[in-house]
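JOB MANIFEST
job_type = single_chain_structure
chain_count = 1
residues = 313
[input]
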Amino acid sequence: MNHSSLDITIIFTSYGSFRPINYLFFTLTFIFYLLSVFCNVFLMLVIYFDSSLHKPMYIFLFNLAANGLIGSSAVWPKVMENLLSDTQKSSLAGCLVQIFWGYFYLTSVYTTFSVMAYDRYISICKPLQYHSIMTPGKVKTLLTAANVVPLVSITILVCLTSRLPLCKNTIHKLFCENLGIVSLSCVKSALVNLYGVCMVTILVGFPCIVVLLSYAAILNVSLKASKDAQKKALSTCSPHLITFINFALASLFSVIYNRYSSYLPEQVNILIIVDTFVIPPLLHPIIYGIRTQEIRKCIAKTVRKKERFFWFF
């Protein structure tokens, strides 16, 4: 088979034949997906409607929550559909759309983490200059870059992948991944491989360096500060560090699995997918809601308003 048409059907072999236990897997996936959507939308609404949260840190957090919605929605609805189907398949065009939004989520989370780390660095290391540096224009520029650079980069990647002639149509995955589609090609494309390496370096490696350097500078300043200042810095930065470390480890394990997948059990791939597309979108709003004092106060204020409203009626 040698096709380049987008109407090719891609078949997923990881699901196996349909079994009654698929209903349980579907129910669990549906619950986690709904929780993820609810938590992210709730956090976005809290930030949007409370003017006291209209600050750079929370604007970037709003963007992170939006990314979480994109990531979970790019993967899990199709997975749930396949869980209840006798044949698990997707058109190549549908696969490329899923790759686009899935990879946009992964890369834009890293770029958002980097601008959040930069914001925390300015806030803690240069507090007197914070408002002159983090102007509304600067915030818009950082936010635009954090979304547009991944958007353009992933668009180019998907265009390159879509031009490859395919000789096979089965992938041993739960959903569409770029490496999975590239492996179906009749030819080895050095251009796609080189572009993929460059994209990972720019959109993953560079943001990780920014985060690490920012927190190294924050740690250096905090060690010289008072106990109260150290406590405040820890309270502000710990949610970001927890979410970043979890996401970075999940990404690292995903790279290792894709490189040595033939030597590792398939359950490892499922765990990595859960840790990349389930836990972060669900974990980010919960951690920031619990660990960030201003958001906790705003959520408590919102709940009290609702209680007074229902008590009135």
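[summary]
The radius of gyration is 21 Å.
Residues 92-125 form the longest helix (34 residues).
exit_status = 0
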